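Provenance

Sequences were taken from public entries as deposited. Structures were produced by running a predictor on each sequence independently, with no templates supplied. The record for Aspartyl protease from Pedobacter duraquae is shown for reference.
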Amino acid sequence: MVSPKNHYGKGPLKAILIILITVHVLSVPSYAQEFKLKGNRKKERISFRLIKNLIVIPVYINKKGPYNFILDTGVGAMLITDPSILDSLQFSKLRKVKVGGAGNGEDLDAYISIILETQIGHATLTYTPAAILEEDFFSLSNYLGTPIHGLVGSYFFNSFVVKLKYSTRSITFYKHDVPFRRKGIGLPIELILNKPYIDLSVQTQGMEPRKSKLLMDSGASNSLSLEILDGKKYPLPAYSIPANLGVGFGGLVTGNIARAPLVSIGPYEIKNTLVSYPDYEGGPLKALRTGRNGIIGADILSRFDIIMDYENHVFFFKPNQNFKKPFEHDMSGLEIYQSGEGLKDYMIGRIEKGSPAELEGVQIGDEILGVNLHPVAELDLEAINDFLKAGDGRKCILKLFRDGEVVYKIITLKKRI
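Predicted structure for Aspartyl protease:
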């Protein structure tokens, strides 16, 4: 079995790909680009699944589906990552482009379309600006453990006032002229390329709190990523650990992970959060220079219920029951993905150097058959990952399949950051 070559949701290189594709999509003729509710409906409520902090909603394309899409504030044009959901005859009508220039990765082939009809709940966008990847570059399904077909973002958020309740895993979206009570603290946002940016106070180790412009990215599963300060790479704090932050368009994203003492969202103080410092230069760094300092991701956003009003450039934040939940990093050094028919096989795709898993002899390519005496048939990917960050010094028993044999490994978890 082959490890998926790319992981989504870790931040920076996903953003570059989205920017480059958006440029191509914006070059096609435009039509009315707003979702419309059917009939006299003024609002709609739908449920979503929360997987690795990412919002997965049902979407219909050309009256077929439902398909699983990530609702992503970091996306402009809709992105279809699984081209198999479209009739192959449709591709002859589309313009094919190469998307490249961000790092050392190969160019991607994508098709540009505005002829797709998209439906979310009872809201429909008849001519949807979209990019369709020729292959599933992000390996979203393997990363999340469920079939994922694409990403939808700004065209949905621009069409409504959106109440995003992580606490109940529900979304209610209202026509702009419908009055309703907006609970929480209202903070101004700025839209750049139809993506929301917010100014927050961020304090990192050894530095005073400072105002930081952050992209609010519900499609980034991490907490906080700091990239640029005063036009240069954001300085590392005195204590951090090296880490692979994911794989994206330009190849492997390496960097460091540390703790940030304080992030303030209005009066709400988020303490001791994890923060990523990606290590990249050249083309990717230039592509990200929109005046921002970094990204605030879904591991922080999911601790609030949020009302998103793009039209009036204001978001309302109300802490939910997860607000005080501690931020924990993996304590084993393993990265696991799902593979095989029905995504039922749990495979080890990466091992951090010097980690507890490496020290115990766990190997890339091992298949996990059980964790702590639970067969994987009783678990899902999130449950397995929870076992792997259960606490410093805790034991984790792995039942593995390697080269035709069953192997047992006992890992002593270690809190490295």
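The longest helix spans residues 12-26.
Residues 185-303 form a domain with the Cathepsin D, subunit A; domain 1 fold (CATH 2.40.70.10).
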